[in-house]
Amino acid sequence: MADTPRFKVLTLNSIAPTGLNRLPSAQYVVGNALAEPDAVLVRSADMRKIDIPATVKAIGRAGAGTNNIPVAEMSKRGVPVFNAPGANANAVKELVIAAILIAARNIVPALDFVGSLQGDDKTLHEAVESGKKQFVGFELPRQTLGIIGLGKVGSLVADAAIKLGMDVVGFDPHITVDAAWSLPSNVKKANTIEEVLKGSDFVTLHVPLSETTRNLIGPERVKLMKEGAVLLNFARDGLADDAAILEALDAKRLRYYMSDFPGAKLKGHAGVIALPHLGASTREAEENCAVMVVDQVRDFLEHGNIINAVNFPEVVMAREAPYRVGISNANVPNMVGQISTAMARAGLNIHNMLNKSKGEMAYTLVDVDSVVPSSLLDEIAQIKGVLSVRYLPQE
Prior knowledge:
alpha/beta, Rossmann fold, Alpha-Beta Plaits, seven-stranded parallel beta sheet, five-stranded parallel beta sheet, 13 helices, 16 strands, 32% helix, 20% strand
């Protein structure tokens, strides 16, 4: 064990101690005011507005979304950006189900009504009995829930809705194999978003925000929804067009818009029930996210392995030799050949090598049988397309 810590980890937000405690104090210094950190852990802080030190080798987002991180810039530096997909999925699922129930039973206006009453018990009782009929709702069995996005959260929502007696239809053109396996078999698969909108009493969004999904539910798509439908957005701000939502609410096409992202345009409208971004705000979700992302960042710093990086391929290689080199590079031809040739010229025997790519990014792990000289690391770093080189000897 080294006499002094090997790595410095900067925290830009409060990260659950359950996760931070997985960084051994003998190897790691963790704090919110560290200079030249090796890694950054973040939740909601906007890293697009700060200068990220050149020493940073990895960024870990204790959550799923990475819109607050300059991912493209980090890719150019050869820095993986890790997240924690699925770690807060149960928390979001529970909030979505709660929102569905709140909408079906008109809970919020009913609460507002009771809160506005004045007088003694007799007066209140009379007002309640005469006023409650305006809040008559409906039960969920045989109602249709449309789910756009069938990842971890979408699959959990589907399962919970089915258990409540709802019919479920889902759409996801990019569903993963793992998500497909976890999706309940009685979810009807839609071919288009429009098909989901036309046939659903409730529609819930569970897709990331990108240029292709911004304002996914806009004026034309809102018009396709059933009269009196409920739209739920507990995924990302920006997926629904606020102006189109307001128009649909005023026209009574939408019964409610349930959202985790309050906006100035929507604030105060009787048909809008907005929460202060509570999707992942449970003790369990915060701990799950912290544990997952800390483990991933630690594995990368110590062994070069990459799991759940949004901008890098997944590369995991068991240690078979004490001397390891991790190389981030552009996904261009002959990179592996140039690396292997450089190592051969240096007299190193390659014990094991793994190279994978993801889009424009590629990553290579190489285990060798003897000490890697710094001159070789410098030589590899000079290969056109190489973005970063890290030497990872076994401690």
